[in-house]
Amino acid sequence: MIEEKKTVPDKPASKAGEGGENPEVFPVNRGYIRRKKFYNNLAICFAVIAFIIGGFPVFHIIYKAFEVGSAYLNWNFVSTLPTGFPIGARGGILNAIVGDVYLIVIASVLSIPLGIGSGLYLSLFGRKRSNYFLKLLNELMIGIPSVVWGIVGFFVFSTATGPGFHLGFSSLAGGLTLGFIMVPIITLLTEQAVNQIPASYIEGALAMGATKWQATHSVIIKAAMGGIFTGILLGVMNIIGQTAPLLFTNYYNTGMPTGVTGPGGAVGDLAMLIFIYIHEPSKILHYKAEAASIVLLAFILALDLGLRLINYLTKRFLL
Amino acid sequence: MAEEKKKDYEIKVDVKNLNFYYGKQHLLKNVNLFFKKNSVCTLLGPSGCGKSTFLRTLNRMNDYTEGARLTGEVIIDGQNIYGKSVDVVELRRNIGMVFQNPNPFPKSIFENVAFGLRIHGIKNKEFIVERVEKCLKYAGLYDEVKDKLAKPAFSLSGGQQQRLCIARAIATNPSILLMDEPTAYLDPVSTSIILDLITTFKKYYTIIIVSHNIQQAGRISDYSGFFLDGELIEFDEAGNFFLRPKDKRTENFITSRY
Amino acid sequence: MKISIPILNLKYKDDLYRLILSLFVLGIIAIFFVSVLVIAAYSYPAVIRYGAPFLWVKTWNPPMEIFGALTFIAGTLFVTFLALIFSVPLALGIGVFLQEYCPFFLRSFLTVIIEMLAGIPSVVFGVWGVLTIVPWLRESVEPFFNAYFSGIPFLKVEENIGYGILAASIVVAFMILPIIASITKDSLSAVPDLAKDGALAMGATRLDVIKNVSLPYALSGIYGGIVLGFGRAVGETIAVVLLIGNQAIVPKSLFSVGYTISSVLANTFTFAVISPIYASAEVELALILLVISLLVNIIGRNILNSVIGGRLSRSQFGGG
Questions:
Q1: Given this model, what pLDDT does residue C105 score?
Q2: Which pLDDT tens digit goes with each residue over C220-233?
Q3: For chain B, which residues lie within 8 Å of any Cβ of chain A, measuring from their own Cβ?
């Protein structure tokens, strides 16, 4: 395999330097080089195949949902309540869309102030040590499985016995539980957004004698707006797909809610509707579950586009 | 430069009409120059003038830079390295490169130097040991590290790390050495050791150095070039370049720092 | 960032601001500790009554009040590890592809696809599994294995229904894929260019660089990503409920049905609350999940903070 690369025979040296080529020979192993290039190409192939397999579900899920569900997708579907037997065989998913609005609003009311406030605290007043623990706490909350949140929500909000708020299976109980899931996301992204503001911005304001409160008003909120909105949208994107926490706190309502607590307080929910429909032994409900998936995915896609727009605008105009 | 005849057998690297674009920026504007065999050539210029970019075009390191585009020719040993049939692996074996910051691999001192041999398929242990020792000796590092070859390379001092990188670069027996401000972050003693190395190295290698330190460049170079805003303003023998610059801009650059 | 402005009034204002913000922080701390407390308190009766054997007793019999979680723990671990086995090589390939091999003009577009995978809700994955993966397993994969590998116990097809451990693992693998892939990509992009250049300049191929420079640098970050992916897989609920078959048996083969901790909670918790000890046993299952997730996240986050500075990538917040 090893062949020797001939050195160039001595030629007259330039006047710049004495000597010539390095007299040593380097045993060039062409076979090995060829093989290593082949392995490199093999690695490229593997990486591309991995990517194709990984990206495949995205397209196939959307394709499948459209193939099965698009027949049911029309204005009626999103604007009427489910009827028929089994319930949902006729009519649409209005209950779930309205319910999602309830849940998002309730979760946001809890989590947006809490998340932004804590994020500001972390970045403005936090000490190194306490920040480490508070950030870890938030990261741990992100890691807690959603079904565990459901059980927590049940005992804190829904249960009729023992300590707790006794809200029953209701949108308030479900929304607040979802709010718990949203809080750490907003906190961490607010903190990240404020920390990304160039130090000179904030120090400029502080050096002029502004308090941190005034600096927050005049500089920080404006400069961190993009990051904070990213956090909120990511939070909404996350909770809108949640099913497990709602199983024990809100469950499902085929009609419109009559309140936010107690009997009649439960709402429909897209993710829950899909979950329930796919469990039913009825083909038509399976198709409708796919149609509802399209609506849910469209919702998420819209949020996603919003996120990217914010990202773009932030990069373009603020920083 | 104009008076000098280009003699083919003396030319190691010949750059013709080289233009380099990065996105919309035009970083190198129609650069023409050649490097003679076994000479030390320094490229000077203020930071951001394109001299490092130029250096990286000589061993095609810009291949992996996002948005990079290049026109023109770089002819090394009679072959255009941007031609179709060029083997980049062999090209880079033939061109050693030393960077601004010492950048040893996260491996032992021995393995750092042996790396170049291993990736070119050399498995003969005796050859590798012999070669590593020899390169460390060339780089003037062997006496300092011979007892701790198995230690991680990061345990060395900055100057030693840079000499390790030089040893690493010559391990594959290149004929050209590219150095991108090799002494920028080193203390004066290490700098002086490395400058001495460079002058002895030209016996075997064609050395092209990017620098912004005019004194150092004057001390070691046979040829010098001055870059400004991507243009090669002047390229000449070191004596002429430093004492009798033809271009006003070169003169300003040299005198303002002396 | 300490400011020393000698006007009391200004300092006072900031103290008030700080106080108000710290109330919000207390809110979050309260949420966390109340949650942990709730799980701990409600599982306490079962922990006392059943002790450690809860973890290795096989019987789960609510009417007789005999509770042992082995079946569910086994199912959870089975699904989780199988998902990791599918997911880790793919995720490494994707991370390496996006960071090292992908043409520049495609990189951001292709990254979006992986982020979209992370955004798909669990229930939609579950529906996709029911309508795509399950029929595929039932009609193609299981008959094939039945015909050629029926002698190997681990690959034995007991009931040719498509639902089971394998279907759940495949879908969970896709769900944790974006987490591991995006963290792999971030860790690789944190490798200093200078180190890679050093190797490239010597004639290394991209593969040489990845093997010798990038991966050694990025390895701990990748471990962190795998740990977080493990955490996600353990807690994954809705997709698993739809796919695993929901039968309380310890899975013996790739194709058997089973039950995981999270899916048994999703299916039975609402009935369980009728009997205090049954509910308590179920909460103890949740306690197991909680403890695993906390441990795994403490380990994973600490690794990541030291490698990529705790930067949060979008793919880490998947739809639940």
A1: 87
A2: 999 999 999 999 99
A3: 9-10, 36-40, 77, 87, 89-90, 93, 119-122, 124, 127, 172-173, 175, 202-205, 222-223
From the list B38, B87, B121, which residue is nearest A20 (CB)? B38
Structure confidence at residue C14 (pLDDT): 80
Comparing alpha-carbon positions, the chain C residue that sits nearest to B168 is: C202
The string of pLDDT tens digits covering residues B3-58 is 455 555 578 899 999 999 988 889 999 999 888 888 899 999 888 888 889 999 99
Q: What's residue A210's pLDDT? A: 79
Residues of chain A with C-beta less than 8 angstroms from the C-beta of B9: 11-12
B185 close to C (CB below 8 A)? no
Which residue from A46, A58, A275 is facing C238, i.e. has the nearest CB? A275
Task: Spell out the domain ranges in chain A.
Answer: 3-72, 75-318
Q: Given CA atoms B146, B152, B155, B158 in this order, what sign does their dihedral have?
A: positive
> What is the rounded CA–CA span in Å between residue A250 and residue A108?
17
Average pLDDT over residues B86-106: 89
pLDDT in tens, C89-136: 999 999 999 999 998 889 989 999 999 999 999 999 999 999 999 999
Q: Does A19 contact chain B (CB < 8 Å)?
A: yes
Pick the CATH number of A75-318 from 3.40.50.150, 1.50.10.10, 3.40.50.2300, 1.10.3720.10: 1.10.3720.10
Tell me which residue in A14, A24, A36 faces B38 most closely, judged by beta carbons: A14
B120 to A37: CB separation less than 8 angstroms, yes or no: no
CB C67 within 8 Å of CB C281: yes
At the second CATH level, the architecture of B8-105+174-257 is 3-Layer(aba) Sandwich (3.40)
* pLDDT for residue C149: 87
Sorted by where each begins, the domain ranges of chain B are: 8-105+174-257
Question: What tens digit of pLDDT does each residue of C280-300 get?
Answer: 999 999 999 999 999 999 999
- Residues B19, B20, B24, B29: is their CA dihedral positive or negative? negative
Strand spans (E) along chain B? 11-22, 25-36, 40-44, 68-76, 79-80, 95-98, 176-180, 206-210, 223-228, 231-237
A-C Cβ pairs (cutoff 8 Å, strict)? 305
Residue A264 backbone phi and psi in degrees, to 5: 85, 0
CB-CB under 8 Å, A36 with B222: no
DSSP-derived 3-state class of residue B81: coil
A14 to chain B, any CB pair closer than 8 A? The answer is: yes
User: Residues C239-253: what's their mean pLDDT?
Assistant: 92
Inform me whether the C-beta atom of residue C147 falls under 8 Å from chain B C-beta atoms.
Answer: no
Residues C181-194, mean pLDDT to the nearest whole number: 91
Token pair of A276 as six digits: 């329930």
Residue C224's nearest CA partner among C292, C276, C296, C148 is: C296
> Rg of the Cα trace of chain B?
18
Give the pLDDT score at B7: 57
How many interface pairs between B and C have CB atoms less than 8 angstroms apart? 69
Q: Across residues A29-49, what is the average pLDDT? A: 93
Burial of B205 (0-12, 13-18, 19+ CB in 10 A): buried
Per-residue burial over A111-130, b if 16 or more Cβ lie within 10 Å, else e, is: bbebbbbbbbbbbbbbeeee
Task: Name the residue in chain C with its Cα closest to that of A178.
Answer: C320
Chain B residues within an 8 Å CB radius of A21: 37, 175, 204
Beta partners for B80? B75
d(CA B242, CA B254): 7
CA A170, distance to chain mean position in Å, is: 25
Q: How far apart are CA A118 and CA A186, in angstroms?
A: 9
Counting as contact any 3 or more CB pairs under 8 A, the partners of B are: A, C
Indicate the class that CATH gives domain C71-316: mainly alpha
Find out whether B53 and B28 touch, Cβ atoms under 8 Å.
Answer: yes
